[in-house]
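Might I ask for a little of your time on a matter of protein folding? What I wish to show you is a protein chain and, alongside it, a tokenised description of its three-dimensional fold. I should value your view on which stretches of the chain appear to form regular backbone elements. You will find the record immediately after this paragraph:
***
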Amino acid sequence: MANWLTLRRSARQFADSQSSTESRFNAEQLERVRNQQRSSIVEVLHVSTLWMPNLTSICAQMAQVANAPHESESLTKVVSIAEFYSNVLTLTADFDRALITADLLATDVETRRCLEAIGEAFLECVTLADVLDSDSKAIANKVRQMIESITKLGQAVSDLRGRAVELYRPPAPQLPTPPLRSSQHQSDAAPTRQTGPQPTAG
């Protein structure tokens, strides 16, 4: 009888130990996945933030081309934009890789929607920035469209940042609050003060 109880206790302890180990393993695996997701989204936000000034600069130069009074000045500015644009395009591979990685790791529907919006707006900006013609009217139209695309990109980046904070920011630690003492308890615990004359012994 004693042996049976011992074996039963050992089996229960082993099962509890296995359950605890499995639970710890699952928690650690989940945290690793969350860290990968967090890192991939941070990379997208970082690259997006770097891209915004470049796209805004291209847009401003395109506006100057559209408002150039002389055709020769317009052509000069187009060449300048084309050179700047070609330099910018060399960085698109890093941005595409960051977007693809984040999209593959993301499991949240809203996060994937934000990533898709960023990719679409960024593609619009890059396409509109290719101004190799000297038609001022066409360039002016592209400027308006690019301003809209840059605005969309900024909003999508802001949405992704907000969603990432909501999903991955750890909760603030809560400080323990001391238990409140009831007024009755305080009155019972408080010493009584006698104001009248004290009786003398004997």
